């Protein structure tokens, strides 16, 4: 499928691994490898769940629990200060304006007091993060703690990781993680993305295994008297019913990846009924999704910005009611409510229930449930590694703990205040000073804790319960697969080819050639690689 920072999906990126390259010459050729489940199990930490606040909505089918009310009483989960004084250097991404720095930020003072030392952050804008991380790795000049989003893995990372970052296997594998009980609370699947070359190199920031959803403006749907669809035909009919360019309203934005799922995407790589390894571009699901989405474009249901290839204003167009359906990461839901509800209390945004093209049982191929990995510099001595892991342990504190509260809401009465229902919200000072900095160093298991939006918690809880029921784990899930670097251009090449068909620049009849040309461009070699990797892993 098409590479996307929210879902990290591509024709050649797989569940459990990213294109990996080392720090050598770009002319080198690499065969790649796969680490099977047994080998992973030997380096992964034990999972020891803890709970400090009982959820109002327990998880279903393995989904995240939900909290409709914020706990009144908080527990100190970390008794001793993690640091023994001094300063820690850390680099994290910033997807928002950079807050005031040390000496000018009382939130930093509060958290650093709890930590027993000072964390000095280098905050780098998200769009520049991958390039800066790659340059710092090449120069072997990284801070003590480096946060690496899984969509910014630098070129040749797998080959160079051990030259720059500390092997944490002997500190965290198996029962050793029990020295850090809040890290032991992180589910096993989230740790898979921290393993390179058969060794554990990082601490994960867990995420949902569902990279995105189809969202709709539920308030405008109510006004227009329409409901979410239950089949592809109903989706097309819905688009026709709500599309009204004369009123500056279009039905959809970018929805192609979601449409592939509607038509039964089995995952980026799967085995067909005969046992042959196939890529999603070779499947009927992909072909039918291209045809269906092309029809939406041809009918004029897609917003002109998207038709022109401009996807920078999707959130704005959706919030303004100019586009009623679009796909985005699940985090966009909470973000939109925070931005829109203060001035538009009736703003309604919902994730569409999963549906299949024929009205039957839907499926959702899941992705690795890890958003980021925190790495520790190689030259850090053992005692210092333990200190830094204690900082990560602090950052992983779940709801119901004092640590969780201070990281997200600072000091109550100064950086935040509770509303009539007891839900904390940031004050003007909190909004100025608090961003997700310390919280990027690690995170607790996924939970829905946005108690200021109980309707959102209920709705997302229900959506996730349904999604978990219909999840499909591709054969690559849980394997640490490293692809041959020589095939790295395939995703962009066939993203462009697909977009040409969707927008009518290439006849839709050419959809059948996509798979054929992909095979000739290196797909068959990549298939052979995956066939061996899966076979070696017993899949």
UniProtKB/TrEMBL annotation:
Pfam families: SBP_bac_1 (PF01547). PROSITE patterns: PROKAR_LIPOPROTEIN (PS51257), TAT (PS51318). InterPro entries: Bact_solute-bd_prot1, SBP, TAT_signal, TAT_signal_bac_arc. It is found in: Cell envelope. Its main location: other. Keywords: Signal, Transport. Belongs to the bacterial solute-binding protein 1 family. This is Extracellular solute-binding protein. It comes from Saccharothrix lopnurensis. The lineage of its organism: Bacteria, Bacillati, Actinomycetota, Actinomycetes, Pseudonocardiales.
């Amino acid at each position: 499928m098409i590479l996307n920072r929210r879902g990290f999906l591509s024709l050649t990126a797989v569940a459990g691994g990213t294109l990996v390259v080392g720090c050598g010459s770009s002319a080198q050729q690499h065969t790649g490898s796969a680490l099977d489940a047994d080998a992973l199990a030997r380096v992964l930490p034990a999972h020891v769940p803890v709970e400090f606040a009982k959820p109002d909505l327990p998880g279903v089918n393995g989904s995240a629990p939900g909290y409709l009310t914020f706990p009144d009483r908080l527990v100190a989960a970390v008794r001793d200060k993690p640091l023994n004084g001094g300063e820690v250097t850390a680099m994290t991404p910033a997807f928002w304006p950079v807050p005031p720095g040390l000496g000018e930020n009382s939130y930093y003072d509060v958290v650093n007091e709890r930590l027993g030392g000072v964390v000095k952050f280098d905050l780098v804008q998200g769009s520049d993060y991958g390039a800066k991380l790659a340059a710092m790795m090449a120069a072997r000049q990284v801070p003590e703690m480096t946060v690496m989003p899984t969509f910014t893995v630098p070129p040749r990372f797998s080959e160079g990781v051990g030259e720059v970052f500390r092997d944490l296997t002997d500190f965290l594998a198996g029962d050793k993680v029990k020295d850090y009980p809040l890290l032991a609370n992180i589910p096993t699947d989230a740790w898979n993305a921290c393993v390179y070359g058969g060794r554990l190199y990082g601490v994960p920031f867990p995420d949902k295994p569902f990279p995105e959803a189809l969202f709709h403006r539920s308030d405008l749907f109510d006004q227009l008297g329409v409901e979410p669809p239950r089949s592809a035909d109903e989706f097309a009919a819905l688009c026709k019913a709500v599309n009204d360019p004369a009123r500056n309203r279009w039905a959809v934005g970018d929805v192609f990846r979601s449409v592939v799922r509607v038509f039964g995407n089995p995952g980026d790589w799967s085995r067909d009924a005969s046992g042959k390894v196939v890529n999603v571009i070779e499947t009927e699901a992909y072909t039918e999704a291209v045809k269906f989405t092309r029809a939406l474009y041809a009918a004029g249901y897609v917003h002109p910005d998207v038709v022109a290839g401009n996807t920078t204003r999707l959130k704005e167009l959706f919030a303004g009611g100019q586009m009623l359906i679009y796909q985005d990461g699940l985090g966009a839901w909470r973000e939109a409510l925070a931005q829109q509800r203060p001035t538009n209390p009736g703003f309604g945004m919902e994730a569409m229930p999963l549906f299949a093209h024929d009205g039957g049982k839907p499926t959702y191929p899941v992705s690795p449930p890890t958003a980021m990995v925190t790495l520790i510099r190689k030259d850090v001595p053992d005692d210092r590694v333990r200190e830094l892991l204690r900082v990560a342990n602090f950052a992983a504190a779940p709801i119901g703990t004092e640590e969780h509260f201070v990281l997200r809401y600072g000091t109550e009465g100064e950086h935040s205040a509770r509303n009539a229902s007891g839900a904390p919200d940031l004050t003007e000072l909190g909004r100025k000073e608090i961003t997700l900095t310390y919280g990027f160093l690690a995170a607790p298991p996924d939970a829905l804790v946005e108690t200021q939006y109980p309707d959102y918690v209920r709705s997302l809880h229900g959506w996730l319960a349904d999604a978990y029921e219909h999840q499909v784990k591709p054969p690559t899930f849980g394997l640490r697969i490293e692809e041959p670097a020589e095939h790295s251009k395939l995703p962009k090449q066939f993203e462009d080819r697909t977009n040409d068909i969707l927008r009518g620049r290439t006849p839709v009849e050419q959809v059948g050639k996509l798979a054929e040309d992909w095979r000739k461009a290196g797909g068959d070699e990549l298939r052979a690689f995956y066939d061996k990797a899966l076979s070696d892993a017993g899949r």
